[in-house]
Each structure stands twice: as structure tokens, then as C-alpha cells.
Amino acid sequence: MEVSKVTRIIIATHGKLAQELANAAEMICGRQEELITISFMPSDGIEDLTSRLYKALDGLEDEAIIFTDVFGGSPFNAASVVSLKTQGLYHVTGVNLPMLLEVLTTREGHTAEELVEICIKAGKDGVIDTRGLFSRGNERCR
């Protein structure tokens, strides 16, 4: 019986956001394999962060996606360097819980490239101005 490989997911953020996003996702979806979190704390240096990203890729047999929290931040900068030097590694910034849930529940049977497209859409769709959400005639209420 052949075991299907799933895309490794690495979340790298400022503070403990990465761990808490993973905790929330696992609360909803159950325990996840190939899900790694990296917290960039005020006392950490960029070199340490880059080193931890490379360590998170140890033993990678297939593809991986790194999710970072904010464009231009230290996790983004380190992940950008690592992703440019690593084949099969994708990088998405602006991580949110809807995007993470989507990638975790659809990663089996999809390539990392396909997952990037799927999760970006889910991330955008998960941001909603709720003021008119329950008004009459709203598409989402039908």
C-alpha cells in the first residue's frame, strides 16, 4: 500500500501567532501531519530565523509551503530568501485562519502550486465586511 505524501506546511510569524494559528486549525480539523510552526520572538535574530526555516525543511521529500504573517517583516524576508534557494518551496504571506484551514483540508491530491492558488482565494474570501451580511437580498443569506 503506497502512502500518499502531503505538502508540508510551515507557518512562520512574529510572536506566537504561528503556534496559535496551528492550534486553532487543529481544534477544527484535528491533528495534522507535516505542519510546522516557527515563532520569531523579539530576542531572535534573522540568522536564527533563517536557520530554523532550513531546519523545518529537513527530510523534505516533496513540496512545501511557507506561510508568513506580513509582507516585508522579518519572517517574510527570511522565508523569501529560503524559498528562492529551495526547489519545490512556495511562500505565501498574509496568512489567516480561513486560508490555513483550506490548505490543510485540501492538500491531499493537490500540488503545492495548486494549493497556493486555492488558499489565497480562501484567505481573501474569509475577509468579510459583515455590516450587510444578513440584509435582505444578500447572496450569502440565501
Task: Please explain how this structure is put together.
With 142 residues, the protein is α/β, with parallel strands linked by helices. The chain has one domain: 3-Layer(aba) Sandwich (Rossmann fold). Helices cover 42% and strands 16% of the residues. The protein has five helices and four strands. A four-stranded parallel sheet has the order 2-1-3-4, with helices on both faces. Helix 1 packs across helix 4, helix 2 crosses helix 3 and helix 4 (97-106) packs antiparallel against helix 5 (112-125). The chain is globular. The model has no long low-confidence stretch (mean pLDDT 93). Keywords: Cytoplasm, Kinase, Phosphoprotein, Phosphotransferase system, Sugar transport, Transferase, Transport. It is found in: Cytoplasm.
